[in-house]
């Protein structure tokens, strides 16, 4: 779906820029509200995420002793900028991607990984034992969830015969929903996204009862706000990618809205059903199971494409 609007409007306001930030905060509220209702709690009011961000932006940012000042201030900016840049190649809100080229799926995958790397480096940049432990857990968990998440995205890409997200979107729209043809890949993608974002039960890297806030323990003010907004933006992009690849593609705003909300309902349910996993369970179990089943399905798709023309 094309929009007859100037590029600067598309990038800064809708469907990128300010809309992406606002929708990220809205989905954060929806996720927290759903988890609360699943657990028979009331949950936050609709403006709570926005109020939290404004409060953090207005607070003083204190650089802890021993931290590199440039990295301390720069990492949150890089994390948010990477997430916002990834949105340029994704069919946000069901519209055509702002930019598209062959192989943009690989670029988006690396841009989404930048958030986790920046959080890990932010923790390692501090001398706090809580930050260092959180950074270690974050960088350890990235290896357990990035590879399965990538494998889950490669399944539809191979089925479509393209590494271009827009072409995969068109293929998914014209054929049967790939959640039917590749159900394992869908499950691996959804769980992998939750692990990337350190959502419960995969929140060992920022376990409040163990290590305060993990890698971001020493962050306050603007830095913490940027990291938080970056995670919200990455949540939106991740849900959009899964809906694009596995739920028949995205063709209009209503299509995007109901499919991403359904995915959010499922993710919130998984957060409510399971208690926090230990870091060894989070990493070891999912690496063995998630990566293996994702690889097996990927091999099955490749064999199917090779054998199919022979019959």
TrEMBL record:
Asked if the keyword rRNA-binding belongs to this entry, the reply reads no
| Transmembrane feature ranges | 71-93, 105-122, 142-163, 175-195, 256-274, 286-307
Q: Which UniProt keywords apply?
A: Membrane, Transmembrane, Transmembrane helix
Q: Name one Pfam family in it.
A: NADHdh
Reply yes or no: does the keyword Hydrolase apply: no
Membrane topology term:
Multi-pass membrane protein
> Listed GO cellular component terms?
plasma membrane
- Coiled coil ranges: none
Location in the cell: Membrane
InterPro entries per UniProt: ComplexI_Subunit1, NADH_UbQ_OxRdtase_su1/FPO
Protein name in UniProt = NADH dehydrogenase subunit H
Natural source organism: Longilinea arvoryzae
């Amino acid at each position: 779906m094309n929009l007859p609007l100037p590029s600067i409007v598309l990038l800064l306001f809708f469907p990128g820029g300010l809309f992406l930030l606002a929708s990220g905060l809205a989905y954060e509220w929806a996720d927290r509200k759903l988890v609360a209702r699943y657990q028979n709690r009331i949950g936050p009011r609709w403006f709570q995420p926005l109020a939290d961000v404004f409060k953090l932006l207005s607070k003083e940012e204190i650089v802890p002793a021993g931290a590199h000042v440039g990295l301390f201030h720069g990492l949150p900016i890089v994390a948010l900028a990477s997430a916002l840049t990834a949105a340029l190649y994704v069919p946000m809100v069901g519209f055509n991607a702002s930019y598209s080229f062959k192989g943009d799926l690989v670029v988006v995958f690396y841009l989404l990984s930048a958030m986790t790397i920046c959080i890990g480096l932010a923790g390692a940049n501090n001398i706090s034992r809580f930050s260092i432990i959180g950074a270690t857990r974050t960088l350890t968990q990235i290896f357990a969830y990035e590879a399965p998440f990538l494998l889950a995205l490669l399944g539809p890409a191979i089925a479509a015969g393209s590494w271009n997200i827009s072409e995969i979107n068109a293929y998914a729209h014209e054929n049967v929903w790939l959640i039917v043809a590749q159900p394992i890949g869908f499950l691996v993608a959804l769980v992998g996204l939750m692990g990337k974002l350190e959502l419960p039960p995969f929140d060992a890297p920022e376990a409040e009862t163990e290590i305060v806030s993990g890698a971001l323990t020493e962050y306050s003010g603007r830095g913490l706000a940027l990291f938080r907004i970056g995670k919200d933006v990455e949540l939106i992009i991740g849900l959009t990618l899964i809906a694009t690849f596995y739920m028949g593609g995205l063709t209009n705003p209503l299509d995007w809205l109901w499919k991403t909300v359904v995915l959010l309902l499922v993710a919130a349910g998984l957060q409510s059903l399971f208690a926090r996993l230990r870091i060894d369970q989070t990493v070891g179990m999912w690496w063995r199971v998630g990566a293996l089943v994702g690889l097996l399905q990927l091999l099955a798709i490749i064999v199917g494409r090779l054998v199919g023309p022979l019959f």
